[in-house]
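chain below, 269 aa
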Amino acid sequence: MSPAEGRVPHGAARIIGAFLRAHALAPGLGGVVVGLSGGIDSALTARLARDALGAEHVLGVLLPDGGPDAAIEEETVAYARELGIALRKVPISPLLESFRTALPEVTDRMTVGNTAARLRMTVLYALARERHLLVAGTGNKSELLLGYFTKYGDGGADLLPIGDLYKTDVWALSEELGLPLPVRERAPTAGFWPGQTDEEEIGASYVVVDRVLRAVEELRPEDEIPALTGVAEATVRSIVGRVAANRHKRRLPPVPKLGLRTVGLDWRD
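prediction:
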């Protein structure tokens, strides 16, 4: 994957490191737990956490679902060893099989994939609770804006250290930090089914997506974005539509206004 269009903000690694120390080493806390998928987002999150907190304050967790990814698993184990962080392997296959047994009528592959993501987060929170750690999510800015994550699955975390880095920024920062080449070159995937890739499902490459999202962030009028970015009007419309349609994923559940101050409306912590 090419980081050519990445624009890593000045001092990004330093700022993320300070952010992690302020939150994850607060009184009563001992660091973070990171789910390691073999993808670049989790690899970068683990590296930034290791650099900021020290290896002894980072727990990496492999959460395989029985898919044919043994080579990626071995590579991820080697990467965790290279970082010097503790590593746990917790297969979620038995949990997923229990779900299928309890609800045999649920066969839609997206529903099953979302369930797997939620089971993974359940495991991470159980481990975090036992060790007084925070769950460091691995979502990037492109995914957060597109809603390309599972609500209460990989989107359910205590911290999102790379949540203000677009995917192209993630590639660029990963190259700067010298993350392993296989991780940097692997096609982004949620791993919901064999052969599934983010970009095929989204309908555009992350390079294209990020051009549009940067224009949206700058409050450019939608009808000007095609000329500004060189992206086809239909693609711009699709991306902007996704951002709007998935707004609910970036908000607390709505609450009806009854009291003087209402959580999520006018009572914000």
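The longest strand covers residues 32-36. The chain has twelve helices and four strands.
thats it, cya
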